[in-house]
Amino acid sequence: MNLPWREDFKIRTFDVDFNNTVKLSSIFNFMQESASNNAEQLKFGYDDLIKNGLFWVLSRAKIQILKYLTLGDEIIIETWPKGTDKLFALRDFRIYNSGNEIIGEATTAWLLVDNKTMRPVKPDYLVGNIPQHNIEPAIIETPGKIAETETKAEVAEKNIGYTDIDINQHVNNVRYVDFVLDSFRMDQFKEKQISTMQINFLSESKYEDKVKIFKGAIGNTANDYYVEGVNQNSAKVFQAHVEWV
């Protein structure tokens, strides 16, 4: 069984923004597709788990981007399981261009959820069957909690519709990345690029929910931001920390 899993994608017209730069949410889509395919290979993908009433939920993700690619470029996603941390099953990623140059790295923390109780279960019995490997972690630390900023303001409200919902009947994680990106004005994307994003998924959103987006600067720079989504019941749906360069 080969580790890490390696998969090539071509950046298409709908993967880039007005700058002809691949969108961060598109990179998350590539990562999610690769993670799903690798899980299927390792016999704990969607089809294997649903038979036992289980499914994966992405809980936390941190990504660092060194270089953004453009339309027509090849992007290579390398991913592998990284063991467990309490209830979290960890998975890392390295991102390459066609010249095999590392252009980004990421780490993620997943929960294995029982679809009847909707409670997490320990993933040890699944990941314990994965062959041992000596792959250097992409990012050593497990993504932690995100601290709120003292000052934040509402910048948008999202009405959850058909295109937001995934196979598990709730909002797809990548849509929340889009919500974070949409909280910034286009002028900022003309002048800078996101170098690091951590996003933590705190509760699910379903069809016809309303999610208000709040944003606030961290510190005195214009490069560090906190973003959160809050639903109609005043429950936090996600939190994000975004750094620009």
Protein model, in words:
This protein has 245 residues and is α+β, with helices and mostly antiparallel strands. It folds into 2 domains: 5-127, Hotdog Thioesterase (Thiol Ester Dehydrase, Chain A), CATH 3.10.129; 153-244, Thiol Ester Dehydrase, Chain A. It has 5 helices and 11 strands. The chain has helices spanning 24-41, 46-50, 124-127, 173-182, 186-191, and strands spanning 5-10, 54-65, 74-85, 88-96, 102-114, 120-121, 153-159, 194-201, 210-217, 224-231, 236-244. Strands 1, 2, 3, 4, 5, 6, 7, 8, 9, 10 and 11 form an 11-stranded antiparallel β-sheet that branches. The protein is globular, with a radius of gyration of 18 Å. The N and C termini lie far apart (39 Å).
Q: Mind telling me the CATH superfamily name of the largest domain? A: Hotdog Thioesterase
Relative helix content:
10-25%
CATH-derived architecture of the largest domain: Roll
The general outline is: globular
Distance between the termini: 39 Å
CATH class designation of the largest domain: Alpha Beta
CATH fold topology of the largest domain: Thiol Ester Dehydrase, Chain A
What is the structural class? alpha+beta
> What is the string of SSEs from the N terminus onward?
EHHEEEEEHEHHEEEE
What is Rg? 18 Å
Sheet of most strands: 11 strands, antiparallel
How many helical elements? 5
Q: Give the strand content.
A: 35-45%
Average of pLDDT: 94
How many distinct beta strands?
11
Uncertain stretches: none
For the record, the count of structural domains works out to: 2
